[in-house]
Amino acid sequence: MEETLVYSRSLYDEQNLDKDIIYKLILKHDQTSSKLKKLKDYYLGKHAIENHTRRSNLPNFKTVANHAKDIADTATGYFMGNAIRYPKTDDMDIEDLLEAFDSADVDSTDSDNALNMAIYGRAYEYIYVKEGENELVTRSLEPENTFIVYDDSIEQKPLFAVYYYQTKDDVTEESYYQAQVVTETLQYSMSLREQKKESEEGVPHSLEGLPIIEYRNNRYMVGDYEQQISLIDAYNSLMGNRVNDKEQAIESILVLYGAALADTPEEAREAMEILREEGLLELPKDASAEFLKNVLDEATVEVLRKALKEDIYTFSHVPNLSDENFAGNTSGVAMEFKLLGLEMITKTKERYYIKSLHKRIQIFANYYNWSQIYENAKAIIPQFSRGLPKNLLELSQIISNLKDKVSLRQLISLLPFVEDPDAEIKALEKEKETAQEEPTFSQNLPYEEGVTDGQSEVLGEAESPEDGSGDGPGRANRKATRRNTQAGK
């Protein structure tokens, strides 16, 4: 959980930002960025066990079971495995908006945002005009170097955003912060040192509203595995010690009873080398030798390992998909119960993400002068679809049962392989129109084309024998008719 950075609106002057305040805010955020860096390190497999030390002559395996990455990737895939859909409405044309989103590659940005939310508990998106062009593009920024400052009102409205990084002067060897500060209308570039602070004049960024948007994973901006790090460390330690014990068992200590290996340390080292190479030891008659063995209670260790692993996934609410409970062909309802915890935290992600998406829509609409979309941004309801394998047979049965009870568009949208339900409906209607326009041919049409009116009468009589049978005399008459027709030609 991170404290929200707040600044008094009464003291805030967008045209003349106080550089000392910006510098202090950066220092405050930089103090908490170590926690964010730790979260990223755990995702990348850099865990605390890598710093574990033992005596130089003891084995020291540093096993890393990267549950953090598994949890983050599973939660991200479930939440944003499929691109967000924006359904069209009769009241508003959003085709231009969707094309602008495609041009800005928002799907990739959404995927990066979702992963940052899982790791850090928050994500930041920067919307800007592409250099040398007039199109908007989006980019996901690193939360380690980005923060938003809110006002001190009860609504906590955003005042400005800061993206910074630490650099070094090659001449003076002095470290300082280079920062980009954006407000609702201006953008500043600042070089901030403790004694000297330089800033360019604010440049209009032509985007109404703050172009850096914050996406929260939940209310307190907690990452998906942040509270399980101690359990992950315990699991790594257990597995590392387990391997170390196995290695030590292999290199057991040899104990001699009633005999000495050598008289001097030098002779003992030489004797141990010979013993290691030859594997033979000659002892006096009454002497004996044995290895000291560390008895390992594998059953107890395995119980503890399973308990730790279960707790890691249980308290993260992200299921272990490699668990035996997910094996086999599970029905849709049973799968929903197994994914209930993940579904709950994903719903929370959705709620906060939609709130920020409306800000993105407004920025795009304002830049491209789409007044109707800008004023009714909240009327656009993004649709999320879960990244799960679908049982198409079960889904087809559901659609069949809902026919004439639910709109066709809604039924088609349930199909995972249909990306655009509206386009699919149009294609379906076009196929029906084409099928109606095509002429219907009789099965006997090629045969009847060569038959005269008189012969048709004979044919009609031949095809209606008194006994009602389609074989016998009727079939013979049809053959005779065909011969007469060919002779007439």
Automatic annotation (TrEMBL):
Residues 430-489 are annotated as: Disordered. It comes from the Bacteria. This is Phage portal protein. The lineage of its organism: Bacteria, Bacillati, Bacillota, Bacilli, Lactobacillales. InterPro entries: Portal_protein_SPP1_Gp6-like, Portal_SPP1-type.
